[in-house]
Specification:
Largest sheet: 8 strands, mixed
Strand content: 25-35%
Radius of gyration: 21 Å
CATH architecture of the largest domain: 3-Layer(bba) Sandwich
CATH topology of the largest domain: FAD/NAD(P)-binding domain
Shape: globular
Bound molecules: adenosine-5-diphosphoribose, P-hydroxybenzoic acid
Low-confidence stretches: none
Structural class: alpha/beta
Strand order of the largest sheet: 7-6-15-16-17-14-18-21
CATH superfamily of the largest domain: FAD/NAD(P)-binding domain
Number of domains: 2
Number of helices: 11
Distance between the termini: 45 Å
Number of strands: 21
Mean pLDDT: 96
CATH class of the largest domain: Alpha Beta
Amino acid sequence: MACFKTQVGIVGAGPAGLMLSHLLHLTGIESIVLEARSRAYCEERVRAGVLEHTSVQMLCEAGVGERLSREGLRHGGIDLGVNGLRQRISFIDLTGKCVTVYGQQEVVKDLIARRLADGGELRFECRHVSLHEIEGPQPRIRMDGNAGADEIRCDFIAGCDGFHGISRSAFPPGVLSIYEHTYPFAWLGILAEAPPSRNELLYMHHERGFALYSMRSPRITRLYLQCRPGEDIDEWSYDRIWSELHSRLGCSDGWRPTEGPILQKGVTGMRSFVAEPLQYGRLYLAGDAAHIVPPTGAKGMNLAFADVFHLSDAIAAFYRRNDESKLSTYSQTCLRRIWKAQRFSWWMTALLHRFENESGFDRKRQLAELEYVTTSRAAATSLAENYVGLPLQA
Ligand code: APR
Ligand code: PHB
């Protein structure tokens, strides 16, 4: 078995692992990123697409925002609709900030290119990654790579391997508390080759279920329909998907989504999940490895960036000043913001979806809340400040 040494071993080359590796590099700290999938798979996987003001600032300050600034679509607000009647919520008016629509895989491409240009070590297609001696000062990662089995000795391990990764399960039994909520619906999402026919996102609450109009570029739209969990995607033909999108998204002023060839379709379940604490010994979790939000609030990738911002800062303080205080409060610091994002994502989800078998009281209360958010400046401001992103220290 070949042995290697680095300061931080990072499991997972998603937004969390790649950004952590880059932020550490900026402060002169070495890392090795170990990824189970191929580079092409990581760069093509279609995921989230909305960057908070806070994340854009972080990417730009870290010198990886050049293409994002050029190609990202800046949105100064969203439309919120109820049964075809829509109301704009202006983030610019209410908060002075905006969000940027830029696909997660584009962020991943930019970060991979930058790490490689800076001489960073990214190992793709690693098999059987396992973590050892995480309690001690010199934890180790073992894996099988293309050239045989390797062991990497490090000072710290960052578990950035997403919800299905192995890092969370390396915590000894009884250490983690799990908080979760599963929603009684899912999203059927499509990517369509059709130029967006509106400039901003439209979140529509409809009698037939929630629908979302989003986009990726001046050529590509991204649309979602609330559906049953475990919905069989093969039962959704091109015509059925577009007919349902027209019914739910069509507006009273005649606006309809523009149709185009469907490039990709899939069903995503909806859950809220938090594992606490984010640290045990020398193992630190970040991103989806520690928490999942339903996509309604567009927070997933943004939370991953907030975590690694704090983690890189804490690791830098350790190497620079032998100061472990930020490492010891890393979990608490992140969890404060994670729970606020959980609250917001749950609230947006509960506000906008149809719930089967809900009581008459709950239905009336939901409609009143929709009217409140779309007519009260105070309520809209609360939505806007959460959507554009709470401060990193929140
Ligand atoms: N060994 C190595 N790599 C692994 C392993 C493993 N055992 N298990 C998973 N991985 C890799 C995955 O292949 C993936 O590339 O870890 C990476 C985790 O990346 P993400 O799932 O993108 O998670 P994260 O970086 O935390 O980013 C969160 O991703 O799920 C979206 O919407 C979510 O936008 C959010 C973002
Ligand atoms: C997306 O474009 O994929 C998207 C946008 C907003 C959301 C969720 C997903 O709330």
